[in-house]
Design a protein that fits this description.
Blueprint (H helix, E strand, L loop, with lengths): L2 H13 L3 H8 L3 H10 L4 H7 L5 H6 L14 H39 L1
Length: about 120
């Protein structure tokens, strides 16, 4: 399944096909949703963070159930815990990247001090 089809399924499921309402729900401009559809892409992090119950596996692969079918799928607290864990992983990755860049900058500063 391509990203455009996936996005259209999400829009139909969450806002009965209303692209503008879907854009507002996920916190982007309607033009962003239109661009995603035209380019056959979307921002997985934005969708996952704002579409309650959506399956992260489905967002990444397009396979399986679009909506999670587990004990936490209808449980707001369970959904929130899963969302927090997902976002913590993203933050940890970004913090590692920042640390690597800071280390590289420090090494570059040390080399320029020697020269």
């Amino acid at each position: 399944m391509n990203k455009k089809d996936m996005l259209e399924r999400l829009i139909n499921y969450y806002t009965d096909g209303n692209k503008a309402r879907f854009a507002a729900m996920i916190g982007v401009k309607p033009q962003t949703v239109s661009a995603w559809l035209a380019r056959d892409t979307f921002d997985v992090e934005v969708i996952y963070a704002n579409c309650k119950g959506v399956s992260g596996d489905w967002l990444l692969s397009g396979q399986g159930d679009m909506i999670r079918k587990n004990e936490n799928a209808g449980d707001a607290d369970g959904w929130l815990v899963e969302k927090v864990k997902f976002l913590e992983g993203i933050i940890a990755d970004k913090e590692r990247t920042i640390q690597i860049l800071m280390d590289q900058q420090k090494k570059g500063d040390e080399l320029s001090d020697v020269g």
